[in-house]
Amino acid sequence: METIGFIGTGHLGLPIVTNLLKAGYPVKVYNRTREKAAPLEALGAELVDSPAATAVRGGIVLTLVSDDKAVESIADNDFIQALGHGGIHVSLSTISPDTSRALAAHHQKQGVTYVAAPVFARPEAAAAKAGNAVVSGPGAAKERVKPLLEAGFAKNVFDLGEDPGSANVLKLIGNFMIAGAIEMMAEAFTLAEKNGVDPKVAYEMLTTTLFAAPIFRSYGAMVLERNFADSPAFGAALGLKDMNLVLQTATRSHTPMPLAQLVQSRLMTVVARNEKDTDWVALATGAREDAGLKG
């Protein structure tokens, strides 16, 4: 198997690299905080000291970092030249569609292919290879990358065509729908509690019948438990970043999204309270507080 580069071993990157190693891929890993990648070294990964050092000429490097600026800072000339002609940079991050398109053009000038493949999975789903990937970019590169996505985290891979920004549009849509579902359940369970109905009973009835879907089951349970600060898998600051990108994309395409504005405001409140390190499900506290419920 060819050696794979991987940059960014946070909550989500760690299980993906672990799966790649278990599948037999040699992996060269760079993480800005080297200590966070130490568990992977024990599993056989090679830790390196720069993004460019993860690259094998003509090979594949996957990046999974927090935002547009982080991806742009990685994809400098040293990194692209290290990948070289025939190399592929796979961005697993949730970033702006416009940033993906600009990155693709920048890579192409030096013979490197850029593929957008943002991850649909929380860490536990990625570890179980039960996540989903959406990919966009040149066809041959996507075919070469697909086995890595399946080995790393993806039960399903959905092809969005050649436009490198398309996968990022769909990823933003997905995150918006999750945030909207969190807000909806927060309001529904608040209404139940205010009217003497046990929210847990409402949750069980609704998420096993009319709304029997993984998002409602998993996030609904988190809304009820209200334990948002214990090692968040996806922080409120990242959720706010994503909702900002949703609304930026909506504005550029003249698409009114009032619900997105609401959940953006909910997340901004969480971050403004210096609770940015809580899970983004904390946006659910807004509905309770509006209704005069505490705790």
TrEMBL record:
Pfam families: NAD_binding_11, NAD_binding_2. Signal peptide: none annotated. Keywords: NAD, Oxidoreductase. Residues 165-283 form the 3-hydroxyisobutyrate dehydrogenase-like NAD-binding domain. Residues 3-158 form the 6-phosphogluconate dehydrogenase NADP-binding domain. This is NAD(P)-dependent oxidoreductase.
